[in-house]
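WARN no homologs supplied; continuing
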Amino acid sequence: ARAQSVMPSVTLPCHMSIFHSVPPSRHGVITNDWMPMARPLPGLIELAKAAGNRCGFFYNWEPLRNLSMPGNLAYSYFRDNCRARNGDHDNAAEALRTIKSLELDFAFVYLGSVDEFGHLHGWMTEGYLEHLNHVDGAIGLLLDGLPKAAHVLIQSDHGGHDRSHGTDSSEDMTIPWMVAGPQIRPGHEIQSQVSLLDTAPTLARIMGFAASVDWEGRIIDEVFG
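OK structure emitted
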């Protein structure tokens, strides 16, 4: 789907919205500097852990360490390699190894070089698109190696224009959002409007637990078979 980001279309506010299904005006993180929520609400990881799931994070941009409350992850892997050409491939390989060895129920795999190369070359430039094609290989590595019963949701947190992002322009706000797996209708093209806020409720349904009453996103029902 051509989904929508949130304002400000900046990495940490967007990811807080992905995991907590509320806009930045509610969770309070409006820059890449994390702030504790004035009115705390449970995120996807807290509810997944409470439902008995083992969750892991694999990321290469350090501020993402604050997306869940301490004590809820079974495994966390950070390596400062998002500016390296093969950094996302290394991250994907580590995720694949650990998902199998620890039998994780949920994994967040962040491929941060796409954003870095946007800032370096400019969004949709030749250098950016060449690197995007390269990072597609890291996604392929994951898809080829995951168990057949796995579900995968792939999205961006924001878009970009020139060498920046953060505005409400369509270039910054339009993102890809796609999901596949045994519960998902194969080959279905999503017709409804999708937002970053819908990611956590949809993942909660896939994992079999109820969304929080505090969440503002919705389950994208039409993708389910």
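The chain has eight helices and six strands.
OK
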